Amino acid sequence: xxxxxxxxxxxxxxxxxxxxxxxxxxxxxxxxxxxxxxxxxxxxxxxxxxxxxxxxxxxxxxxxxxxxxxxxxxxxxxxxxxxxxxxxxxxxx
Length: 93
Ligand SMILES: [Zn+2]
Known about the structure:
Layout: E1 9-14, E2 19-29, E3 32-38, E4 44-46, H1 59-72, H2 84-87
Antiparallel strand pairs: 1-2, 2-3, 3-4
Residues 14, 16-17, 21, 38, 40-41, 43 line the site of zinc ion.
């Protein structure tokens, strides 16, 4: 692996651009990049080794939340909508 120096341009994941972008090395630890700066939005952040952060919304939690919501607010469920009878004829199924 080649030596990285301050100011070198390396690829890393930018949280603001939400993609792999060119970054300048602004800080080194143990001859590896510690902090980098996005060359597109100039956002400084820890070097992420080109890994995107995990998505904030956990789909399992979201599903559980909807399940609880359906129990607490039965009227919020789509099947209970009073408007449902109106759109019945338009549906193809
Ligand atoms: Zn950026």
